[in-house]
Every structure is written in structure tokens, then in C-alpha cells.
Amino acid sequence: MGRIHYDFSGERVLVTGASRGIGFAVARAFAMAGADVAVLSSGSGIHAAAEAIAAECGRPCRACEADITDSASIKAALADLDRIDVLVNNAGLERITPLTDPDEAIEETFRRITDVNINGTFYVTRHAVLKMPEGSSVIVTASIWSRTAVSEFSAYVGSKHANLGFTRVMAKELGSRGIRVNAVCPGWVRTEAAMLSLANMSKRTGRREEDLLNEITGAQVLPGLMEPGDMAAAYLYLASDGARDITGQAIMVDRGEVMA
């Protein structure tokens, strides 16, 4: 089977939520393809992530520490970036928010999730597009749950549906500037957030995590749990010239779990 090789030499790429998981894997893949990469996260771990990528790829990787729910913080973090060719809006928060849970902390969790996943995505894009030339690309990490739903994840599912709406609006709004906007919708991937959700689902249902995971992967056409690195190719493709005619679309990467 043939292999596809991407060359992003000279391209400047910003990936949010890149301290671990999918974001880290995507940032690493762009760096390996020759891009000048900047990674952004609210935690200090983003510096270690940038150092790891730089060490492996043999090229600098800039770390930007900022809270994406704070517009001024994002503006300041991006001030030194004079150009952004690819923006990957990957930062997000996934937590359980059961409607019938009497704990008032659920409401604060709901607010935090929507703030990060919706407002944060808007703030980053709003400031980044000012630095994006014609031919640039914005990629939003949505979810298969942006096309379907699961109980007790109202904030996460609702925010990911909003991410698809945002993707479509921005595709229309930025198309005249030659900027494409698309979304990647990952299925179940072995990330810290996904495994925490699995543990919470197990706790609330009384079922073993192993049984739940087998049920989840059993719903896929292709079996097995994906790893963060399995996601990277979709982002590289959408940012490449090969996808120059694709905008406003949501690409499912879920081994056939949701066909829509």
C-alpha cells in the first residue's frame, strides 16, 4: 500500500490543547512534516510538550501558555506570531454533566465546558485569523458526538454540536478571504479525557470499564481503540493543497462508528 508524504516546510502552524493527547500528536505530525509549530495550552505542561516535539523533530517548537477562555490572554499569547497558515482548534474539555445530579457543582462544570469548547474556540479563531493569509486553513476538533448524542454529557455534546455550527459559519464568513474551515470528528481515542469519561460511565452504571469499552469498540465497523497518533493524518490532509476545495465539512475519523 502506498504512503502519503506531506511537506509543510515554511508553513506556520498553531495547535491549541497540545500538551497531550490528540493535540500533541497533531502538533508533532506537522513538525515532522517540516512546519514551524507553536503549541498553546493553559497549563505549564505545554512547555514540556514543545521541548519534546523540538527534540524529536530537530526544529524549534514555540510554547504559548494562555487561557483560551480569556480573550485578552489569547491576544497577548499570539502577539509575537506574525503569520499563521494553519490553525488547529483542538483545546477542549470533556466531563460528565448529568441533568438529574443534585450536586450544584454540575452547573459550574457545565459552564466551564461550554466556556472552553465554545467561547475559547471563538476567541482563538477571532485573534488568529487576523494573522492568516489567503490559502490558510482552520481545523476544529469536534467529535462523533457532534453528530449524535450520549446521555449525561449534555455540556460536551452540546458544545461539540456548536463547534460544527461554528465551523460552517466561519467557512462562509472567511471563504472570500481564501481561508478554509473544516472539522475533524474523532471517535473513541485513548486519551486522558476519554478514559476519564469511561471511568465515570463505569462508576455511574456499575458496569466494568472493560465491558463498556468492548461495547463501544464493538459498535465500530473497524475494531480496536484508536490512539492519538491515528488522528493526525486527517488534520494534515485538511491543511494540505489536496483539500484546497474542501471547506465547511466535518470529517469523521471513528472507524465507522457513526456514518453521517
UniProtKB/TrEMBL annotation:
CDD domains to which the protein is assigned, alphabetical: SDR_c (cd05233)
Pfam family, one: adh_short_C2
Spans through the membrane: none
KW Heme (keyword) present: no
Domain of life (superkingdom): Bacteria
Keywords associated with the record: Oxidoreductase
Family: Belongs to the short-chain dehydrogenases/reductases (SDR) family.
Protein name per UniProt: SDR family oxidoreductase
Species whose genome carries this gene: Albidovulum salinarum
